[in-house]
Amino acid sequence: MSDNKETTSAKVTRAFAPASIGNVSLGFDLLGAALQPIDGKRLGDWVEVKDAETFSLTVDGTFADRLPTGSDNNIVTKCFEFFQAALADANKAPLNVAMHLHKALPIGSGLGSSASSIVAAFYALNEHANKPFDEDQLLTMMGELEGQISGSIHYDNVAPSYLGGLVLMTGEESPVAVKLPCFDNWYWVVCYSGISVSTAEARRLLPQEYSLSSTLDFGRQLSVFVHSLYAKDEALAAKMMTDVIAEEHRKVLLPRFDDAREAANANNALAFGISGSGPTVFAVARELDDANAIKAWLEKEYIQNEDGFSHVCQLSTQGTQVLPSA
Ligand SMILES: Nc1ncnc2c1ncn2[C@@H]1O[C@H](COP(=O)(O)OP(=O)(O)O)[C@@H](O)[C@H]1O
Ligand SMILES: N[C@@H](CCOP(=O)(O)O)C(=O)O
C-alpha cells in the first residue's frame, strides 16, 4: 500500500461483476451464464477505482488472503496496466488512480473467480475514464487477461459476467458475444465444494483431439439447444445439456461428483454438470422445492470443508453494474 494524496473531490467508481458458470455442460468455452442468488445476496467481486497520484492496489473480502501476495501478482493490477497501454494506443490521457478489490469469490472454484475480478476492474476503469472503449473492445481486453491467467483465451466467464444472462461467444471481433434468451422459471443451484481446481491444470487434462462422434454430438447439442431456447422448448433444451468434451476427463478431480449427479436426478434436475473447470457443480431445476432439496443434499454431502457453500440462483440479467461508493 502507498499513501496516495487525495483531494476532497476525488472521483470514485465502484463496479460489481457476478459469478458465472462456464461451459454450461454443452458449450465448452462458448457458452456461459451469470448468476444471481435468489436470496438477493451478491455473489461476485467488486473493484473500486479512485483518483490518486500513485497507483496502488488494496484487497479485502473473504478470499483476499488466498490471493497471491504482492499487488503485482494480482490480475487487477495487470488489468490496470493493460488499460493504461490501451489508453496510450488510443492517444488518450492516462488514468491517475488507485484501486481496491473486494475478493468474495473463492479462487479456482469454477465460478469464474478471476473473470469476476477482471470484469469488475475493466468496467470500473472504463467508467472512471468516461467510457473510452466500447463493449467489444472491453470484452476483448477481458478475454486477453483471462487468457493470461488460465492458459488460453476463453470468454465464457468474462462475457456473461459483463453482459449478464446466458451468453454465446461468436469467435468474431464484433460482436464478441451475443445474449441468448433463456427460461425465466429455471433455478440454477451451484455448490462449491471448498477445494481449489486450477483452470490451467484442468485444461491440460483435456485431449487435444476428439473423435468424430464427439464432434458431431457437440455441434448437434449446441445448435439444437440454441434452437430450443428460441422455440421455448424447455424439455428439448434440457436434453441437450450434457458434456461430451470435459466432464469425463475432469470429474476425477471432483470427489462425489457421480453421487451428486444421482442426487440431483433423484430430485428432478433438468440438468447437472461441472461449472467451469470445477470443483463447483451446477444443477438446473424447474421447481423451487427441487432446487432447495438439491442444495440441501449438496451442502451435506458434496461440500468438503468450511470454505464450501451452495446457492439457489437465477440468471443475473444485469451482469456488471456500478455500485454506489461508500
Ligand atoms: N483477483 C484475482 N482473482 C482470482 N485469481 C487471481 C486474482 N489475481 C491473481 N489470481 C491468480 O490467478 C489464478 C486463477 O486461477 P483459476 O484456476 O483460473 O481460478 P478461477 O477458475 O477461480 O478463475 C490463481 O493462480 C490466482 O492466484
Ligand atoms: N471454459 C473454461 C471455463 C473455466 O471456468 P473457471 O470458472 O473454472 O475459470 C474451461 O472449462 O476451462
Automatic annotation (TrEMBL):
ATP binds at P106, I107, G108, S109, G110, L111, G112, S113, S114, A115, S116. It comes from the Bacteria. Residues 227-302 form the GHMP kinase C-terminal domain. Pfam families: GHMP_kinases_C, GHMP_kinases_N. Residues 74-165 form the GHMP kinase N-terminal domain. GO terms for biological process: threonine biosynthetic process. Gene3D superfamilies: 3.30.230.10, GHMP kinase, C-terminal domain (3.30.70.890). It is found in: Cytoplasm. It catalyses: L-homoserine + ATP = O-phospho-L-homoserine + ADP + H(+). Pathway: Amino-acid biosynthesis; L-threonine biosynthesis; L-threonine from L-aspartate: step 4/5. HAMAP family: Homoser_kinase. Catalyzes the ATP-dependent phosphorylation of L-homoserine to L-homoserine phosphate. PANTHER family: HOMOSERINE KINASE, HOMOSERINE/4-DIPHOSPHOCYTIDYL-2-C-METHYL-D-ERYTHRITOL KINASE. Belongs to the GHMP kinase family. Homoserine kinase subfamily. This is Homoserine kinase. The gene is thrB.
